[in-house]
Write a sequence for this structure.
């Protein structure tokens, strides 16, 4: 039957047209399309990866920002504490310095008072000695006769002066 | 395919040969022809070129219109029903004996083949052009649909089976798929550019199967040939009587044979059912208007249903052919197992 016996002419044309189709498509069709599809798939993959990275970075950035804020707060607190400490320190220092200065002034005053006292003592001594000499001169002038009485008188006088002081 | 006018059936039924006429009409529409039927006229056909080489080695080329109504042109005529070469162009040699010349005519099937080729080429090249022009952008609408089909076959069938060898065999397998698919679909269109029962012709499927056979065996690995001639079976199965090699070699040829017959039988069956359903109307015609009317409604509904199923079958058969070809090729690409595990 015709249906089951392949016709040579049709086999020939079929082979020819398939060959032509194959060579045309293998040269200008399939490689271009498959390469295009591959490239597109790669592009999409890259896009997805990029988006994922971006999202990750965004999440990371938020976290980082929070970290920075916390850090800043901590630093602020530290600074305030330090400032407070510094304030007390300064006040303490100032007080100390003032005390020292006052002490110094007081010491100087004490010294000058002492010196004045010593000077006064010296002056007094000088004066006393001059009085004594005056008295002695007087005594000498009045009681030249009794040497023993003279000495006793001098001593008595001196004791008296000393006691007065 | 179903361009049957009532005249043809009644013309022959008057002669009391109704059965024969119906059978003839069915096989006429399933077979090849030297002209292409046009709607609403059984007399007129689109003339196609006849190219034949006679017994003296001379080439003749003329229009099929010159012989389509029983005329003889340059000694060639179309053989009648009683002839061995019924329906083919024949001639008589010097002794008056009828013979069939070497026939390279552009018949209905050949023209349908060329049309299919151009359709496939246009579809695929337009997608390729899009890719060349638009880079990584995805095509839309029609081109997108073609590309989706390409990806479906390439990723789903070829790449998943052949793995890294896919790019090497993809051009053949994709070409085969799209060619078969377009031929199948064009065969379902009833008027001119379609209607030829192309993939339901054993010559067409035979060529396709032989091509797969060649692809399988030409690119087969050493391991594939070793498995055929010296398979891993007990010695007594291959020596001194080579039972397994004989079975294996037999298997080499049954694969393309199965491919040929599967596609051929499926497509021819689809065409045949639709024609038979249409013919039912004319078979029941003598039984009166009511019966004819009812048969017409049922037949047309069933025909539409069958044609829709044939659209599905067109795709499935193209898919199956491609898938089996891929599997046969991949089986011949096997390497020894210890290499696979590396």
């Amino acid at each position: 039957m015709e249906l089951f016996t392949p016709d040579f002419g049709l086999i020939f044309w079929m082979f020819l047209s398939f060959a032509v189709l194959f060579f045309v498509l293998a040269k200008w069709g399939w490689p271009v399309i498959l390469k295009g599809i591959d490239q597109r798939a790669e592009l999409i993959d890259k896009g997805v990866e990029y988006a994922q990275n971006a999202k990750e970075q965004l999440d990371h950035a938020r976290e980082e920002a929070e970290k920075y804020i916390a850090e800043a707060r901590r630093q602020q607190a530290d600074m305030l504490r330090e400032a407070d400490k510094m304030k007390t320190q300064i006040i303490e220092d100032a007080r100390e310095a003032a005390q020292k200065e006052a002490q110094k002034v007081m010491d100087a005053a004490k010294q000058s008072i002492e010196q004045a006292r010593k000077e006064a003592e010296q002056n007094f001594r000088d004066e006393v000695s001059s009085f004594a000499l005056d008295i002695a001169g007087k005594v000498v002038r009045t009681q030249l006769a009794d040497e023993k009485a003279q000495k006793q008188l001098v001593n008595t006088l001196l004791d008296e002066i000393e006691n007065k002081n | 395919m179903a361009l049957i006018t009532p005249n043809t059936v009644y013309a022959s039924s008057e002669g009391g040969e109704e059965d024969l006429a119906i059978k003839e009409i069915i096989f006429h529409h399933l077979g090849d022809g030297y002209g292409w039927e046009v709607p609403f006229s059984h007399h007129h056909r689109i003339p196609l070129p006849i190219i034949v080489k006679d017994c003296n080695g001379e080439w003749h080329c003329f229009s099929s219109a010159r012989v389509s109504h029983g005329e003889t042109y340059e000694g060639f005529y179309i053989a009648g029903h009683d002839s061995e070469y019924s329906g083919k162009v024949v001639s008589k040699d010097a002794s008056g004996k009828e013979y069939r010349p070497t026939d390279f005519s552009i018949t209905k099937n050949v023209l349908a083949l060329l049309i299919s080729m151009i359709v496939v080429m246009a579809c695929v090249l337009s997608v390729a052009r899009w890719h060349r022009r638009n880079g990584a952008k995805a095509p839309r609408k029609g081109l997108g649909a073609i590309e989706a089909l390409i990806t479906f076959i390439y990723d789903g069938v070829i790449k998943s089976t052949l793995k890294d060898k896919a790019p090497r065999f993809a051009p053949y397998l994709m070409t085969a798929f799209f060619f078969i698919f377009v031929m199948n679909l064009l065969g379902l269109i009833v008027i001119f550019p379609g209607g030829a029962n192309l993939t339901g012709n054993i010559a067409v499927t035979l060529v396709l199967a032989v091509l797969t056979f060649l692809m399988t065996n030409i690119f087969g690995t050493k391991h594939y040939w070793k498995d055929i001639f010296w398979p891993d079976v007990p010695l007594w199965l291959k020596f001194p009587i080579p039972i397994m090699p004989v079975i294996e070699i037999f298997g080499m040829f049954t694969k393309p044979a199965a491919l040929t017959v599967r596609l051929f039988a499926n497509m021819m069956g689809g065409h045949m059912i639709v024609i038979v359903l249409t013919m039912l109307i004319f078979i029941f015609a003598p039984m009166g208007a009511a019966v004819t009317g009812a048969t017409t409604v049922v037949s047309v509904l069933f025909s539409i249903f069958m044609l829709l199923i044939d659209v599905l079958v067109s795709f499935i058969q193209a898919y199956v052919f491609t898938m089996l070809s891929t599997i046969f090729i991949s089986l011949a690409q096997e390497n020894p197992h210890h290499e696979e595990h590396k």
In short: The first helix of chain B runs from residue 6 to 13. Residues 55 and 101 of chain B are 6 Å apart (CA to CA).
